[in-house]
Amino acid sequence: MVKIFMAEGYCVKCKAKKEIANGVEETMKNGRKAIKGKCPTCGTVMFKILGKAGAGEAKVEAKPTTTTANSPATG
Ligand SMILES: [Zn+2]
User: Fold this and answer.
1) Where in the chain are the domains?
2) Could you tell me if residue 68 is left (phi over 0), alpha (psi between -120 and 50 degrees) or otherwise beta?
3) Ligand 1 centroid – CA 35 distance (Å)
4) 25-41 pLDDT, tens per residue?
5) pLDDT grade, residue 75 (50/70/90)?
6) C-alpha 56 – ligand 1 centre gap (Å)
7) Extended strands (E) in 1-75
8) pLDDT tens digits, residue range 44-58?
9) How far is the CA of 25 from the centre of ligand 1 (A)?
10) What contacts 14, CB < 8 A, 6 or more positions away?
11) Structure pTM?
């Protein structure tokens, strides 16, 4: 039995908010969960990312730190 999720998404074809039909939970590569389904009106695939609530995306980039000075460890 597939779990059906009720979620609202934006259909780019209808250019309106629609209730995602047959929405199923999917885990993306980055580990985030999303709901994938179809528009009940036109059948266009809709995708809703279950990220943080609110507008705006925060990009976090980890920079590789290079250590030039190395102190010898005394044991
Ligand atoms: Zn649509």
Assistant:
1) 5-49
2) alpha
3) 16
4) 898 898 888 899 999 99
5) low
6) 24
7) 5-11, 16-27, 33-38, 45-49
8) 999 888 876 544 445
9) 20
10) 39, 41, 42, 44
11) 0.57
